[in-house]
Amino acid sequence: MSRILVVDDELRYCQILEAMLHHENYDVVTTTDSKQAARLLDEQEFDLVISDLRMSHYDGAELLRHRNVVAPDIPFIVLTAYGTIKSAVEMVREGALDYLTKPFKEETIVTAVRNALRVGALNEENRNLRQLLKESLGDMVFLGETPSVKAMMERVVKVAPTDFTVLILGETGTGKDLLARQIHGLSNHRDGPFVKVNCAAIPASLLESELFGYERGAFSGANHHHKGKFQMAHGGTLFLDEIGELDASLQAKTLQAIEEKRFYPLGGSNTVEVNCRILAASNRALEQMMKTGRFRQDLYHRLMSFPIHIPPLRERKEDIKILVDHYLQAFGIEMGKPGLKIEPRALDFFTDYDWPGNVRELMNVLRSAVLMNRGGTIGLESFSSHLLFGEETEAEDAQPGSVLLNNLPTLAQAERELIQKALQASSGNKSQAARLLGITRSHLRYRMMLHNL
């Protein structure tokens, strides 16, 4: 039964609201003393607060601010006979969920209360989910607030408690491993092992024995029984990373193991039964591979029963600041340099950069910058040169006996002059100038900022 605190310095309004809400089977606590209401919030638990705005000594706005400190997730509805746009906006800014004027109709109150309690229930569910994530995964939580990430995480929350086979799709470095671990941490198998197999990292000749195990004498050198990854994952989750690299000869056996939950180990005459959740991931275009015969159609459709796509970082640039703040804090603590901040210019460059290596590349750049940093602020000069010109080949070493003339410009001077000439040749068009220089537009912007162009 939901518990509601009603606060109004007019006793009749307390009595009216109490009668209305009791009729809806709510547990109601009323008080005409707003300071007592603050004490009740300190000492007891409530699912909703309904408070008058104008009260003597300690008004509804002050009570709302008190709630923001002691119980910020409890919905707060304001009632007043002095309804104005200004006061409504101020209360909403302070955190009120709804704002109703007196006199009120019963149906209006009941509807507002139902909506508020629904919001409160969602807040509680989100708190429980965050706590479960924290307990299961520590700090390993997929970060992001963009609509695409929120939609993706909604699918994660829906599918995690089920036994669906999930296929995680995304470019290299987007966080497929992290998302797989989150699904495991939210699943009914979270108390069991999480076993990862990188199908691209194990030679095809060894992958079958790694997945399904082998019996003694199965092949030369098989001197003992060996459990495969399927069996190791019993009671937990098996994560088949880069499943697009799975050899065609193994795809049928893998499909059979997924569907029947049993298989023959190499050299074995008896089946091994397993109960594990199957997650898979790929950065390949599996549908195209299926159409060209490189990936089995039945395995493809089995994996595609519930696909989750991770957007590349260039498609969710609004999340870059969140990621930068998080990893600067994490790496700063790791390396004994807490409290590091990034300069606005550097953050602007990060936002403009396309991050072909996605979050993994961002993490590596930040880790290196934190390692080399000597102060409390990280600027453009802290970042690795690979951000500037990508995969450029190194210049050949100077030939023995070569002479460096004293009147040659410095490298920085030559670079500045080259950029200026490219901009002049392109009439200031940065995209065209970048093409002339053989670099990306974001790299050009970075170099221009360094040279104050």
What does this structure look like?
It is a single chain. The protein is an alpha/beta fold. It folds into 4 domains: 3-125, Response regulator (Rossmann fold); 147-309, Rossmann fold (3-Layer(aba) Sandwich); 314-389, Helicase, Ruva Protein, domain 3, CATH 1.10.8.60; 411-450, Arc Repressor Mutant, subunit A (Orthogonal Bundle), CATH 1.10.10. The chain is 47% helix and 12% strand. Helix 13 crosses helix 15 (358-372) and helix 17 (411-425) packs across helix 18 (430-437). The radius of gyration is 31 Å and the shape is flat. Residues 133-139 and 388-408 have low confidence and may be disordered.
The count of strands amounts to 14
Order of the strands making up the biggest sheet: 2-1-3-4-5
Q: For this structure, what is the CATH homologous superfamily of the largest domain?
A: P-loop containing nucleotide triphosphate hydrolases
- The structural domain count equals 4
Q: Which bin fits the share of residues in helices? A: 40-55%
Kindly provide the radius of gyration, computed on alpha-carbon positions and rounded to a whole number of angstroms: 31 Å
Q: List unreliable stretches of 5+ residues.
A: 133-139, 388-408
Q: Quickly count the helices.
A: 19
Termini separation comes to: 66 Å
Bin the strand percentage: 5-15%
Provide the CATH topology of the largest domain.
Rossmann fold
Structural class call reads alpha/beta
Whole-number mean pLDDT: 84
CATH class designation of the largest domain: Alpha Beta
| Largest pleated sheet | 5 strands, parallel
Q: What spatial form do the alpha-carbon principal axes imply?
A: flat
